[in-house]
Amino acid sequence: MSAVTTVPLSAVKLTNKDYESDQEVRWCPGCGDYAILRQTQKVLADLDIPREKHVFVSGIGCSSRFPYYMNTYGFHTIHGRAPAFATGIKCVQPDLTVWIATGDGDALSIGGNHLIHIIRRNVGVKILLFNNRIYGLTKGQYSPTSSFGKLTASTPMGSPDHPLNPLSLALGCEATFVARTLDRDLEHLGQTLHAAAKHKGTAFVEILQNCNVFNDGEWFEYTDKATKPLSTLRLEDGQPLVYGQNKERGIRLNRFTLEPVDMSKGEAKIEDLMKADSSDLNQALALSRISGKDGLPLPIGVLYKVERNCFEDDVVGQVRKAQAEKPSKNDIDSLLRAGETWTVS
């Protein structure tokens, strides 16, 4: 009788299908979330990490259904608190790959305080911020990123608020990885998610996502084939900042101001243009301030990337140091009775 050969699960090559759960995906037909889900599943399969090593955490909102649709571990938590749960998970099990799926309402309104602290601490999680500039799940109220004057169910006379800038916020919190991508550019979306997955530390990715029910077409200028060559700027490290149908336009630095130029009209030469440098914080801050409505194309890609100690590594290091310095009994009873204790008779 021949011996039975077993193959460890970690040695089995996973595919996109392996990351699809048995739950019915219940987003509105045509929602940009579908594209993000599929590309995330594809990236995870390409990473070749055991499926049980992935955890998805979410708060409340359309995007927060994400953990149900991933065949991994997951937590559907409470409104705006996904960063707190993700921080705890990563500190207790630092070997896990932890992802946060959140929206502009969940992360930037009630969850804003949690978001800034997970970023400044550089916890090793990947934050996917689905930005559709609207509250979708609660039926179309304006969100922290909605444009000024936006007409919605909660602002029938137009929003009196100026929109919050997610990328500038992340950079201001000393983020170590900041990027922007689009739901309708599948290749770019996949590349950006892959870069975020490889980063050690907090990877913050803003995904411009279409809500075809309550805010349809909000980002179409940057995704439509006819308009995106002039309206978007693809960032590639070491390459000049060029855009346009034939890459005839570019951006140069005029003193402290980013200035668009048309090389076909002799306004500048290719060597006059700025080059993308994701290690340059000042450049990243300047690029993050471009609104896409100020005569400059909207930057997409990795704006900033730097290496820094991760929060969970420092926390685990402190725990190990304390254990080494006090190698006493580690049972709960002895810990409770350690130090200054007394008995009341």
Could you characterize what this model shows?
The chain has 345 residues and is an alpha/beta fold. It has a domain at 9-223 and 307-311: Rossmann fold (3-Layer(aba) Sandwich), CATH 3.40.50.970. Helix content is 30%, strand content 17%. It has helices at residues 33-47, 66-69, 82-92, 104-110, 112-121, 166-172, 186-198, 220-223, 228-231, 281-288, 311-325, 332-336, and strands spanning 54-58, 73-76, 97-103, 125-131, 177-182, 203-208, 232-234, 242-243, 249-254, 257-262, 298-305. Helix 7 links the parallel strand 5 (177-182) and strand 6. Helix 1 crosses helix 7 (186-198) and helix 6 runs antiparallel to helix 10. The mean pLDDT is 94.
Features:
3-stranded antiparallel sheet, Rossmann fold, 8-stranded mixed sheet, alpha/beta, 30% helix, 11 strands
Compact description:
By secondary structure, this protein is α/β, with parallel strands linked by helices.
Topology summary:
Layout: H1 33-47, E1 54-58, H2 66-69, E2 73-76, H3 82-92, E3 97-103, H4 104-110, H5 112-121, E4 125-131, H6 166-172, E5 177-182, H7 186-198, E6 203-208, H8 220-223, H9 228-231, E7 232-234, E8 242-243, E9 249-254, E10 257-262, H10 281-288, E11 298-305, H11 311-325, H12 332-336
Parallel strand pairs: 1-2, 1-3, 3-4, 4-6, 5-6, 7-11
Antiparallel strand pairs: 5-11, 8-9, 9-10
